[in-house]
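Budget justification aside, the reviewers requested a transparent look at the raw inputs and outputs of the sequence design task funded under Objective 1. We therefore reproduce one unedited record. The lines immediately below are the structure tokens for a 171-residue chain.
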């Protein structure tokens, strides 16, 4: 099973926020950390807020925070919200299925069992579990230097251009 990009980004936002749960983060900072376009992440954050996974504060000093403690955010629930109804094959949709053997095929039961097992594994983990290596994640996602290309924002250390042996660096 492959998760959608929307689900991937949803999980990244939550991991980012779990790294420093007492601080508000901006969508722009999360975009910079993961090199994601702002318009994509804005939609993701809106959906996460709608489901209560994050809280948002507008205005100066605003930003995002987890909507509940990371220990209370079940990864299976987040994936279900982001993915919608699991449809591993056409026959899972009564409205759009045009499969001639759907009513007599055993594959639907097998795929249904696989989907159930997939979510059963995800249901064993919380956001706190997958963001348990906070020190390493904070180091990778921390912003330290002003970016030239994005209007004075910040870029994570792994995206910064080295000035050593760089003929374009200021002297």
């Amino acid at each position: 099973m492959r998760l959608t990009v929307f689900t991937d980004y949803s999980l990244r936002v939550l991991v980012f926020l779990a790294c420093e749960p007492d601080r508000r983060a901006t969508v722009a900072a999360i975009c910079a950390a993961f090199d994601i376009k702002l318009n994509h992440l804005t939609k993701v954050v809106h959906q996460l807020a709608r489901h209560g996974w994050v809280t948002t504060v507008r205005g100066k000093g605003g930003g995002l925070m987890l909507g509940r403690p990371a220990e209370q955010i079940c990864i299976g629930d987040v994936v279900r919200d982001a993915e919608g109804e699991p449809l591993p094959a056409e026959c899972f949709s009564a409205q759009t299925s045009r499969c001639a053997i759907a009513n007599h095929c055993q594959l639907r039961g097998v795929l249904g069992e696989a989907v159930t097992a997939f979510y059963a594994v995800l249901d064993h983990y919380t956001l706190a579990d997958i963001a348990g290596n906070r020190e390493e994640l904070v180091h990778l996602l921390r912003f330290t230097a002003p970016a030239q290309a994005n209007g004075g924002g910040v870029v994570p250390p792994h995206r910064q251009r080295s000035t050593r042996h760089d003929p374009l660096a200021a002297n």
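The helical segments are 5-19, 27-34, 38-50, 75-83, 107-122, 127-130, 134-141. The beta strands are 54-57, 63-66, 145-146, 154-155. Computational costs for records of this kind are itemized in the attached budget.
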